[in-house]
Design goal:
The chain has 251 residues and is α+β, with helices and mostly antiparallel strands. It folds into two domains: 34 residues; 214 residues, Mog1/PsbP, alpha/beta/alpha sandwich (Protein Transport Mog1p, Chain A, 3-Layer(aba) Sandwich), CATH 3.40.1000.10. Helices cover 23% and strands 38% of the residues. Strands 7-8-11-12-5-4-3-10 form an eight-stranded antiparallel sheet. A hairpin with a 2-residue loop joins strand 11 and strand 12.
């Protein structure tokens, strides 16, 4: 082959590679806009008309769930929901830590689990905190205690799951999480015996905003066979949760 032909072939090949890379980047960007898998930096969310922000470290936290809303060619197209963020420490997308937010009793994307907490509870944050602290199937670890969230007075309760009597995915709350509707992200979260649940309840303009975090402890029954974490791993992710919740600001 003549040198000139070799150069032309090389240029054509380069154009194909660049074109393919550009097309891949375009598709990647489209997916990034439609469904953002990672939760990083400052996030803004709205629950039952309450707008708030929180800061998430760049350490593997993910948005979720992601709802199927169409297709791009042969590939599914997703929309990121604002219900939760989760983090997997072992075994891929097992989501051993999750933080989600809703309101009570109106809810948002998540509805109260009537098996463990009744929507008929009194209207104060204290009444809801007492009900959470007495939830069946749990052992009270701490609380209810007075804390501050975003400069507002709040209540906090920490529990350990002894019997899984609540709802999945969120024990005190539940939301759609079937594969047919939600096809990406840690939408299949479940609560297991041994898990720790932390609940923060804050009154914002007469609406009770509930922030619930769950962490899978070393003795939890939720780990797949052959996977386990250390207490140090759990303490690290719990410290991140404290930092994230402490960063919440309203308005």
């Amino acid at each position: 082959m003549h040198a000139r032909h070799i150069v032309l072939v090389a240029l054509a090949a380069a154009m194909v590679v660049v074109g393919a890379a550009s097309a891949f980047a375009a598709v990647h960007e489209l997916f990034s806009v439609e469904a953002k898998p990672f939760a990083r930096g400052k996030l803004t969310r709205t629950v039952d008309g309450v707008r708030f922000s929180l800061n998430v470290p760049k350490t593997g936290w993910e948005n979720g769930p992601h709802e199927r809303i169409g297709r791009i060619g042969n590939d599914p197209k997703f929309r990121t929901h604002s219900l939760l963020i989760s983090k997997s420490t072992v075994g891929g997308q097992r989501a051993e830590a999750v933080i989600f937010w809703t309101s009570f009793p109106a809810g948002g994307e998540a509805a109260p689990c009537t098996a463990v907490v009744s929507p008929a509870i009194g209207r104060s944050t204290a009444a809801l905190a007492r009900a959470v602290a007495r939830a069946p199937g749990t052992k009270l670890v701490k609380g209810p205690t007075r804390v501050t969230i975003g400069g507002r007075p709040a209540k906090r309760v920490v529990l350990r799951v002894r019997e899984d009597l609540g709802c999945d995915p969120g024990f005190f709350f539940t939301w759609p999480h079937d594969w047919a509707t939600f096809g990406w992200g840690a939408f299949w979260l479940d609560t297991n015996v041994g898990d720790t649940i932390s609940v923060w309840i804050v009154d914002v303009d007469r609406k009770r905003l509930v922030i619930e975090a769950e962490t899978r402890q070393p003795n939890s029954q939720g780990y797949p066979l052959g996977f386990q974490v250390t207490r140090a791993d759990v303490l690290k992710v719990e410290a991140e949760i404290e930092k994230i919740v402490g960063s919440i600001r309203f308005g």
